């Protein structure tokens, strides 16, 4: 897997600041701008996940691929579980746009957690 569309390293700080602004905005404004704040958090996490590391080598590419596979597997389990739970409650929340953004945030969040977890322990092994 050769990453072709990665952003420069300094975009991590931009994505992190967008994510923090969205969390603070949610705490300040509450539910009024909830979907907007969730979308901004998703975009911030996406920018963090799309930014290059300082050193992009084969180990980083392997960790990216493993993290992506883990996140996809967890995403499928989450969507299936959410759909079954929603059918069980019979409230029909799947048609709202909020779960779609939430699923994206969970996907990128799992990807980032697994990526940095594996990156931390691979660097400590050496």
Give the topology:
Layout: H1 11-29, H2 34-50, H3 58-89, H4 97-125
Protein name: DUF2178 domain-containing protein
Transmembrane segments: 31-51, 63-85, 97-117
Keywords: Membrane, Transmembrane, Transmembrane helix
Jot down its keywords.
membrane, transmembrane helix, single chain, mainly alpha, transmembrane, DUF2178 domain-containing protein, 126 residues, 4 helices
- For the record, the count of structural domains works out to 1
DSSP strand content: under 5%
Q: Mean pLDDT, nearest integer? A: 81
What radius of gyration results from the CA coordinates?
16 Å
Helix content percent band: over 70%
Could you name the ranges where pLDDT drops below 50 across 5 or more consecutive residues?
none
Q: So what's the overall shape? A: globular
The chain-level structural class is mainly alpha
- Strand elements, count: 0
Instruction: Kindly report how far apart the N and C termini lie.
Output: 23 Å
Summarize the helix and strand pattern as letters. HHHH
Q: Please summarize the sheet with the most strands.
A: none
* Tally of individual helices: 4
Short description:
With 126 residues, the chain is mainly α. It has 4 helices and no strands.
Would you give an account of this structure?
It is a single chain. This protein has 126 residues and is mainly α. It has one domain (11-125). Helix content is 77%, strand content 0%. The protein has 4 helices and no strands. α1 packs antiparallel against α2 (34-50), α2 (34-50) packs parallel to α4 and α3 (58-89) runs antiparallel to α4. The chain is globular, with a radius of gyration of 16 Å. The mean pLDDT is 81. Keywords: Membrane, Transmembrane, Transmembrane helix. This is DUF2178 domain-containing protein. The chain crosses the membrane at residues 31-51, 63-85, 97-117.
């Amino acid at each position: 897997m050769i990453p072709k569309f990665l952003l420069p390293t300094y975009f991590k700080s931009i994505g992190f600041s967008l994510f923090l602004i969205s969390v603070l905005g949610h705490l300040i404004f509450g539910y009024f701008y909830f979907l907007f704040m969730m979308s901004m958090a998703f975009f911030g996490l996406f920018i963090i996940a799309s930014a290059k590391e300082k050193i992009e080598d084969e180990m980083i590419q392997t960790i990216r691929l493993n993290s992506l596979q883990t996140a996809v597997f967890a995403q499928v389990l989450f969507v299936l579980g959410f759909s079954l739970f929603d059918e069980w409650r019979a409230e029909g929340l799947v048609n709202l746009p909020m779960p779609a953004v939430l699923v994206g945030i969970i996907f990128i969040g799992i990807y980032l957690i697994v990526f940095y977890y594996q990156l931390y322990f691979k660097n400590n092994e050496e």
